[in-house]
Amino acid sequence: MPDGGEFAGGDRVSDTRDGAPEEAVDGESADAEGETDPAADGGHDPSPSTHTVRLELVDEPGQLLAALQPIANNGGNLLSIYHERGNKTPRGRIPVEVDFEATTERFEGIVDALRAEGITVMQAGTERYAEEITLVLFGHLIDTDLSDTLSRIEASASASVADVSLAAPQGTEEVSSARLRLEARSGETAEAIAAVREIADEKELRVVAPLAGVEA
Amino acid sequence: MRLAVVGAGAVGRSVVELAGEHGHEVVAVADSSSAVVADSSGSVDAEAVVTRKAERGIVGDADPADALAADYDVLVEATPTTLGDAEPGFSHVRTALERDRHVVLANKGPVAERYGDVQALAADSAGDVRFEATVGGAIPAVSTVEDIEPGHVTAVRGVLNGTANFILTRMAAEGLDYDHVLSEAQDLGVAEADPSFDVDGTDAALKCVILANVLSFGGADDPADAREFSLADASVEGIRDVPGSVLRLAAEDGRTVRLIGEATGETVRVAPRLVHENGTLAVSGTQNIVQIETTHAGRLNISGRGAGGPETASAILGDVGRLR
User: A36 pLDDT exceeds 50?
Assistant: First the structure.
């Protein structure tokens, strides 16, 4: 307990001796940034620490409950919920910040469970999946190896592919379309779209991109 | 104001018909092969001009050059848009400015392809050049940007081609393919027999190029430092190849596709883009919308009719009013 507060600034004060300093972070003093330390310290520590996730919820009844269930169901102990109603994201959604206690291992499971439920996780610990991008590709998607296209988008550093819907109404040898949902790191949507465009250009596919940063 | 109207298509004819309502008189009208010039004190008979054009394909018995030489205050240039050297529209602009007369353009060519030349001629003339009607028909896009001041506008984007928007709207609503909807649009007179200018994005790109020039020249301390844009500087993708399945996939996700043009002081881009189905930019049918991104005044949206004779004439006559 005493070690955290003594150091000016208080951030990253895990240069302490006992190897388990993270319990000192009691959700009040250093909760904003302290949650990365357990992993850095080895990750096999079974004792729970405080984590913060930032979520983006659709403004509909029941969404908050749906977002909290994966946390509770996967061994997270809810501490606080900051529901920023009225403060909407550029996409018109509601940002919600949830603090909970969990072991590092369970924390990862919780983030996976949230995303599996289709909830947008903008920030988990220091890892940011802030931006969701939906775009449509069209052209000879099958002939140009859609699976390779997707793997290469994945391989580009800025984005990961969260969802794909394919429409090939005229069969696989004609022009088809695919809607992709990408998750990009915060502030990197333009890079992510540029990366997709580059791969598409090479394969003579067309990209129908969203208007970046515009609630259109 | 005494107006000379060059170009007797739908827009030119509407200017001739509506000028009186706005307190102006038309002293000369020309099309590509003929002209009519009023007596020194009178104005031309609007009805007679329109009838003659409809019945005989000419506006009068004089030579087109006579209209350019007439005693007018404002030359309304409403001949068809041409690319490259923007002729003969550019020469009409030059003639009027060299005579220290004002010019109001509906023809996009001179301000899209030779903006710097036009501004240089205007700088040496007692006449001004205005061109509201070149962007978004009845929508006051250029004057709104001017009112806010180009230096305080970061971007202008929008749906600037009614034909392309009509086609995308119908494709989405009816689940039809491009070719099918295009023939329907041609039957309705919404699309021309050769729709390339509209569906390939050229028309929208010219409008965005004009806006980019307004932002660039208006935002520069010295016009000599301003970057000049022409069509060649625009990145342009049209809607011709967009399959119906793209619109279906977009609709499944609450989105749709619109041909969006974007201009900043640095870039011009026209391409089909995903927008929210009920979002501001998802205007329907032949409607246009202009969205202006400002530094201090937030985002402004102006939607309305982006084409049509009386609509465009209304923008022209608005420009004439600003010259007073």
Answer: no
Residue among B161, B119, B191 nearest B260 (CA)? B161
B154 and B220 in a single domain? The answer is: yes
DSSP state of B85: T
Cβ separation of A136 and B260 shorter than 8 Å? no
For A2-128, CATH gives 3.30.70.260
The answer to whether residues A4 and A25 touch, using CB atoms and an 8 Å cutoff, is: yes
- Examine the domain organization and report whether B298 and B157 are in the same domain: yes
| CB burial string A54-92: b at 16+ within 10 A, e below | bbbbeeeeebbebbbebbeebbbeebeeeeeeeeebebe
In this structure, are B13 and B100 located in the same domain?
Answer: yes
pLDDT at A35 over 50: no
Dist. CA B219–CA B227, nearest whole Å: 10
Tell whether B159 and B231 lie within a shared domain.
yes
The CATH number that applies at residue B226 is 3.30.360.10
Residue B273 and residue B156 in one domain: yes
Confirm whether B207 is a catalytic residue. Answer: yes
My answer on whether B193 and B278 are in the same domain is yes
| B323 Cβ neighbours under 8 A, 6+ residues apart | B1, B73, B74, B102, B104, B128, B130
H or E stretch at B35? strand B35-37
ipTM of the complex as predicted: 0.86
Q: Do B274 and A134 touch (CB under 8 A)?
A: yes
Q: Are residues B47 and B104 in the same domain?
A: yes
Same CATH fold, A131-208 and A2-128?
A: yes
Task: Give chain B's domain count.
Answer: 2
Q: Residue B187: which residues within 8 A CB-CB, separation 6 or more?
A: none
Domain that holds residue B126: 2-137+312-322
Statement to judge: residues B169 and B291 lie in one domain: yes
- With contacts defined as CB-CB under 8 Å, which chain A residues touch B243? 138, 175-177
Nearest CA in chain B to A165: B249
Least confident segment among A18-22, A60-64, A90-94, B148-152: A18-22
Interface of B to A at Cβ within 8 Å reads 157, 237, 241-246, 248-250, 252-253, 255, 257, 260, 262, 271-276, 279-282, 291
- Residues in chain B where the model's pLDDT stays below 50: none
What are phi and psi for residue A137, nearest 5 degrees? -105, 145
The domains of chain A are located at: 2-128, 131-208
Q: Return the sign of the alpha-carbon dihedral for residues A166, A170, A173, A174.
A: negative
Tell me the pLDDT tens digit for each residue of B252-300: 999 999 999 999 989 999 999 999 999 999 999 999 999 999 999 999 9
The answer to whether the CB atoms of A209 and B276 lie below 8 A apart is no
Homologous superfamily (CATH) of A131-208 is ACT domain (3.30.70.260)
State the virtual CA torsion across B188, B189, B190, B192 in degrees, nearest 10: 130
The per-residue pLDDT for range A120-171, each reduced to its tens digit, is: 888 776 555 567 899 999 999 988 999 999 989 888 767 788 889 999 888 7
